[in-house]
Amino acid sequence: MDAISVIRAKRDDQALTDAQIDWVIDAYTRGEVADEQMSALAMAILLNGMSRAEIARWTAAMIASGERMDFSPLSRPTADKHSTGGVGDKITLPLAPLVAACGAAVPQLSGRGLGHTGGTLDKLESIPGWRATLSNPRMMEILADSGAVICAAGDGLAPADKKLYALRDVTGTVESIPLIASSIMSKKIAEGTGSLVLDVKVGSGAFMKNLDDARELAATMVALGTDHGVRTTALLTDMSTPLGLTAGNALEVRESLHVLAGGGPKDVVELTLALAREMLDAAGLSDADPEKALADGSAMDQWRRMISAQGGDPDAPLPLAREQHMVPAPTDGTLTRLDAYAVGLAAWRLGAGRARKEDPVQAGAGVELHAKPGEEVVEGQPLLTLHTDTPERFDTALAALEGAYEVGTPTARPSSIVLDRV
Ligand code: URA
């Protein structure tokens, strides 16, 4: 077998054989297939696609490239959630302790942000003392003890995806349904969760810009999970405007704490509860009441245990950026549009995200929203507040926001953040 014949086959729109797929993933993981060869193959897959059978084999080969975790010794059922990535998507933070408070074990292996979407680990690292890295035995210990863990995936889990994702990120080959589905599901299946709920984002701030593509991605991932014995469902949710009122690391932790205290923005609470119900149903805990767990403080108690178990101080003040800049509403009227991608880009340019994976992020940087689409605003009132430690970044963040919002006469908006279920 050789890389050139595999690349040529996909370039000429042929289906790859099982043997070709197994060989190319294994040889790439071992370094025998070079990055430039794999990037040519990834581009051919992006342009010509893969059949469901090819995607299934590609995913199985990526799982086989590393270790598989096993949570069967735990006495509770396991449930996990994965979001395809959005702006202001802090849902994992209130959701993991909430679902654990309702009786499930939540092994949430999360990532860092790259580009305009934030990463859960970057958000949690704004809590003084909190550490993302855990050994597998320590992860099991915390799960058995308190039920929820949010930590970095170890290097042993789907190493083929780790290499391939980094390569796709710099070769314009992220936005491919076969490659996204196999990347996400290889990690989740190798992680060993018993059930999985996928939050597939749709809109300007997401990889999938329209409902049809999002449905196809969701159906592909649900089929992959189900075939590997993981009870998998998906919600398609709106990402045309940021989720909640904040995009940025410490800003989003603060908002998550409001949700855990029984408050918080309506869309964040609605999505947290919708995903919690899906996870609890999939874990066989349909009688649990997540609304009650938010109201009676048990989800917040669980959060405090989860943060302390990883060295964090749940009572420490969260960092604030040194400088703020207010963006006023241009006129009186209804805010009809506030674009998710533009806000994500502005937060990233303010220092909340990174351009290369080794770059540091600013804990306090980001964008705070003072109104959501559908709400009335008055000329001159604060519409957005930009936060950063490095005020020379305000100009490029403001450039990202040019044309990103409109104030005018009200237009019809979806009544729920959840657009569909697969
Ligand atoms: N998240 C992943 O883990 N992989 C992708 O390909 C896209 C989003």
From TrEMBL:
Q: Name one GO biological process term.
A: pyrimidine nucleoside metabolic process
Q: Which GO terms describe its cellular component?
A: cytosol
Protein function: The enzymes which catalyze the reversible phosphorolysis of pyrimidine nucleosides are involved in the degradation of these compounds and in their utilization as carbon and energy sources, or in the rescue of pyrimidine bases for nucleotide synthesis.
| Subunit and interaction comment | Homodimer.
Question: Which keywords does this Swiss-Prot/TrEMBL entry list?
Answer: Glycosyltransferase, Transferase
Asked whether the keyword Membrane is assigned, the reply is no
According to its UniProt record, the EC number is 2.4.2.4
List, in alphabetical order, the Gene Ontology terms for molecular function in this entry. Answer: 1,4-alpha-oligoglucan phosphorylase activity; thymidine phosphorylase activity
Where does the Pyrimidine nucleoside phosphorylase C-terminal domain lie?
Answer: 334-408
In Swiss-Prot or TrEMBL terms, this protein is called: Thymidine phosphorylase
The family classification in the record reads: Belongs to the thymidine/pyrimidine-nucleoside phosphorylase family.
Its recorded reaction(s) are:
thymidine + phosphate = 2-deoxy-alpha-D-ribose 1-phosphate + thymine
Query: Which species is the source of this protein?
Result: Streptomyces oceani
Q: Which Gene3D superfamilies match?
A: Nucleoside phosphorylase/phosphoribosyltransferase catalytic domain, Pyrimidine nucleoside phosphorylase-like, C-terminal domain, Transferase, Pyrimidine Nucleoside Phosphorylase, Chain C
Q: Which domain of life is it from?
A: Bacteria
